[in-house]
Design a protein that fits this description.
The protein has one domain. It contains 4 helices and no strands. The N and C termini lie far apart (about 35 Å). With about 80 residues, the protein is mostly helical. About 55% of the residues lie in helices and about 0% in strands.
């Protein structure tokens, strides 16, 4: 069985998102650089991946997006 970190990285790749875009979809706060770094740290196993993040990933993979989401526009 793969690790949650590996699953997060695979999910992001399947979605075609960069680390910042995934962080934005997860509504992480901070500068774009810090948001991306937090996602990359989760993918590297340096940060725990919470249950709510795992549930959000499942929702994203099934096609759900946050309100007013635009895949091609960075906030």
């Amino acid at each position: 069985m793969s690790s949650p970190a590996a699953e997060l990285k695979l999910a992001r790749r399947i979605l075609g998102w960069d680390a910042f875009t995934l962080g934005r979809a997860l509504r992480l706060s901070g500068t774009p650089e810090k948001i991306a770094a937090r996602v990359l740290d989760m993918e590297a196993g340096k940060r725990d991946i919470s249950g709510p993040v795992q549930v959000a990933l499942e929702a994203f993979l099934s096609g759900w997006r946050p309100n007013a989401w635009q895949d091609d526009v960075a906030a």
